[in-house]
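Title: Prediction job returns without error message
Component: structure pipeline
Severity: low
Priority: P3
Assignee: unassigned

Description:
Job completed but the reporter wants confirmation the result is attached to the right record. Sequence as submitted:
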Amino acid sequence: MTSLLRRYWFFLRSFFRKTWELEDYPVEVRRQDATGIGSVGVEPFCAQIDGLLIVGTGSTREAARKSLAERFASYRAAHQKMPRPGTRAPVEYAATTEIKTVGSLRDDFIERVLRFNPAETFISDESRLSDFPEPVDAMADRIILLYGVDPRVLPDDLLTTIFRAILRR
């Protein structure tokens, strides 16, 4: 109930401001459980704006807040209108237009390189190799062995860039 009351408070305050900064949103910083499957590289602290799916992580509470501030700035730059503080914003999924064009390579790559179940894994045109918990060098070595492409020499680690390089080969 406290979270709901807090959101209402930030919602009411928002009517007295013309522009909204990060401080105008209800932010929760919490310690994450860094044990279990897929927890390699998980930061111990997570900062999130209540009602928005903008999250920052870090090794300290301050680092998580700084990461959140950077992601908030990116979100603001990509959106003409910010959601009112204290409200819930709709979830926006990244485009998958390019990912859909690679066909069965997507599922093969997810299973053999990322080591996830393709049916349970969402990747978008903006997904990067570095988004996954395993060290990039280990995954890069598998990509070289399986597909004959070294992702470390590509201009970025976007999966779409890697897929294009594999398909060109």
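Comment from assignee: result matches the submitted record. Residues 36-40 have pLDDT under 50 and may be disordered.
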